[in-house]
Amino acid sequence: MWANDPEMAEKWEKEEDEKNEGNIMRITRRQLKRIIKEQISATPTGRVEVEWDFFLDGDEEGWNDMSYEEQEAEAGLPPVIDIPSHVMTEFHENVRDYGESQAEQLITDWLSDDSGWLHQGWSWV
Description:
Mean pLDDT: 84
Low-confidence stretches: none
Oligomer: single chain
């Protein structure tokens, strides 16, 4: 209806530009680095950073009173674990066959089975 009216078309163009201007997001260099790091860490590399669960029920020897770093050192567990190639191969097969969520369960189970400790989560490094 207003398609042939140049003034109305110009008004609509201005309104559209103003609307789109609100969709522009400005980020700092630090934020960009964090976003990139998060995306890279989401990529399976064969190395994971683990947050171990060192809480012990019925602790009588003061284990639960130790700092996380002390518990980690005492248990002999590094914060970053290299996943063996055969586990990574199985992980990639599971991603293909069952999806990433199911495949990640393989890593979760392997970490606990190999270390003897539960954990509160892990992420790719």
